User: Which sequence fits this backbone?
């Protein structure tokens, strides 16, 4: 029973982690809480649904299509709503701009798709595998596999490639990176593109797993993914992965052993306690303030 | 007074005016915490709901006078403000934002399961004691006290925490005490606004005090200009009236609202009145403009 819950928690948590990565990467570079990120995740789920039902795609092409769409959407949002504000405003103005984008996108989806919850048709054979007393559905396996693949790919990219090095440099010190000849604007666009693509992938998989796609699905998940990013230490990529999985496990355990109606309160309550003990998050670097 | 006003002003406009008044009280509370002291709070709706529920339950189950009920609601919120203020001593920026978001969510979930508060259905039939003159009177008192506070020694100390906490500490500002104080005051005004809101609306439910409500109030403070009282009032007026004007575009209302936030921020990145210094304007007025050499 406990192991089963742990497994469910890891599944849920790995989708949180995918979305939290977008928050943390963007935050690491431009110190902006990208509130539109939850809506990009919602668009991922919706575009995936569209590709599966209308265009008749199977799972993998639909996933790739949704990721590409989200990538473009993320870059576009950054160009229109965040770039004009960069460098000349306080961080809170950019935050309000992000909230504006988030309201705009969810209303846009509401207008074109209606408020109803839509369901994915069966894209995966609903087989359940038994390992001892553990039950593992085929969709859970796919979620875990895709999430692991994407996260390993992202880590390799950040650690091994030149672009990844440029990204790390930019997040370390934007101005110094600029002076070293890094095209900072391009790196920021790239960050938004990668983060949004990951959120899109998360959207499609959550949409299929919970079988529900609706215009406001991004708000709560966005909030939780952001919490996961902060829990892991915002700005830290491994932190977002750890934070996402931790939050997922906490949430499932809270439902299983305490009370399902207090689900969100438990997750946030533990989060607050963790932050009080470790104010910089689980894997965050402690930055001493300079005078 | 109130009878006269309800006769003279159309009910629809009166409603908007009263909501503006309540929102000004709410936003000035958040302005103290986030605008003046710079402690990012994204859970103002949590304080609002504490005040609203306390006031609603008291006025449904007791015969206490309205003022006592309001103050009880505000005090309940202020108590939690102090509790939330304590983490602010250790956390800052976005980590603090998460704690406040989490607090508001916990409060919302609590009221969703609170027997006395009607659970998810909410409370109905709250006696409507909020009238135009009460809101107006309280609003004026709140604005006056805010101006007095911000011009006082304590007010300057609060601003100094926003500008540079370490420097403020070095100058002998008791940052620990003041940060908790700013949360308590912000929460007090949040609870006060919540009590007025509950009594004006007849009906409250936990859903109304969600994350979007907190964001709505934060928008007002940031849009108007952080830490500026006239700015906050202007922000409240614009963001309360805008959705009403946007009713002409019906379903597209929120679409325009979202786009408006982005556009306003692009053109006035420091808020509408955040970078206006009255002192400079006064000084500049009588003089002719002198052209500066561009070097």
Assistant:
């Amino acid at each position: 029973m406990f192991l089963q819950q742990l497994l469910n928690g890891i599944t849920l948590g790995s989708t949180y982690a995918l979305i939290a990565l977008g928050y943390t990467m963007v935050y690491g570079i431009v110190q902006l809480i990208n509130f539109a990120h939850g809506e990009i995740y919602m668009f991922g789920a919706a575009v995936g649904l569209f590709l599966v039902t209308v265009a008749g795609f199977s799972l993998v092409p639909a996933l790739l299509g949704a990721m590409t769409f989200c990538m473009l959407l993320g870059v576009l949002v950054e160009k229109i709503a965040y770039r004009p504000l960069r460098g000349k405003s306080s961080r809170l103005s950019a935050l309000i701009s992000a909230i504006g984008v988030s309201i705009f996108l969810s209303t846009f989806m509401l207008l074109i798709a209606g408020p109803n919850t839509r369901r994915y048709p069966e894209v995966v054979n609903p087989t359940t595998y038994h390992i001892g007393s553990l039950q593992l559905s085929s969709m859970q396996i796919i979620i875990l596999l895709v999430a692991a693949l994407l996260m390993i790919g992202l880590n390799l990219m950040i650690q091994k490639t030149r672009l990844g090095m440029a990204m790390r440099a930019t997040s370390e010190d934007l101005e110094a990176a600029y002076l070293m000849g890094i095209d900072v604007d391009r790196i920021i666009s790239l960050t938004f593109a990668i983060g949004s693509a990951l959120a899109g992938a998360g959207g499609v998989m959550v949409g299929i797993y919970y079988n529900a796609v609706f215009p406001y699905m991004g708000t709560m998940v966005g909030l939780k993914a952001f919490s996961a990013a902060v829990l892991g230490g915002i700005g830290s990529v491994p932190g977002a992965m750890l934070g996402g999985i931790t939050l997922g496990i906490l949430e499932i355990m809270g439902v299983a052993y305490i009370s399902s109606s207090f689900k969100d309160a438990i997750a946030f309550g533990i989060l607050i306690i963790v932050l009080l003990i470790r104010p910089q998050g689980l894997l965050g670097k402690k930055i001493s303030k300079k005078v | 007074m109130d009878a006269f006003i309800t006769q003279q002003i159309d009910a629809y406009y009166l409603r908007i005016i009263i909501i503006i008044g309540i929102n000004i009280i709410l936003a000035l509370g958040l302005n103290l915490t986030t605008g003046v002291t710079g402690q990012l709070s994204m859970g103002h709706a949590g304080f609002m709901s504490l005040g609203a529920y306390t006031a609603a339950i008291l006025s449904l189950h007791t015969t206490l006078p309205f003022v006592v009920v309001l103050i009880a609601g505000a005090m309940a919120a202020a108590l939690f403000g102090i509790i939330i203020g304590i983490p602010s001593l250790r956390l800052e920026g976005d980590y603090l934002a998460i704690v406040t978001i989490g607090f508001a969510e916990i409060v919302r979930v609590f009221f969703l399961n609170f027997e006395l508060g009607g659970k998810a259905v909410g409370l109905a039939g709250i006696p409507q004691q909020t009238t135009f003159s009460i809101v107006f009177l309280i609003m004026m008192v709140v604005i006056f006290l805010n101006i007095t506070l911000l011009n006082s020694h304590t007010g300057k100390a609060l601003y100094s925490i926003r500008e540079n906490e370490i420097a403020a500490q070095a100058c002998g500002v008791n940052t620990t005490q003041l940060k908790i104080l700013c949360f308590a005051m912000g929460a007090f005004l949040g609870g006060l606004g919540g009590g007025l809101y509950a009594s004006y609306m007849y009906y409250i439910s936990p859903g109304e005090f969600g994350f979007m409500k907190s964001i709505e109030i934060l928008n007002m403070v940031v849009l108007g200009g952080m830490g500026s009282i006239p700015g906050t009032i202007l922000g409240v007026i614009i963001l309360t009236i805008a959705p009403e004007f946007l009713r002409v575009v019906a379903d597209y209302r929120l679409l325009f609202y979202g786009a408006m936030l982005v556009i306003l921020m692009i053109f006035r990145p420091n808020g509408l009145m955040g970078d206006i210094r009255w002192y400079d304007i006064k000084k500049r007025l009588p003089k002719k403009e002198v052209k500066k050499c561009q070097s």
About this structure: Chain B is about 70% helix and 0% strand. Chain B touches chain A at residues 34, 40, 87, 90-91, 94-95, 97-99, 101-103, 105-106, 109-110, 112-113, 166-167, 211-212, 215, 218-219, 222-223, 226, 251-252, 254-255, 257-262, 265-266, 269-271 (CB under 8 Å). Chain B has a mean pLDDT of 83. The two ends of chain B are 61 Å apart (CA to CA).
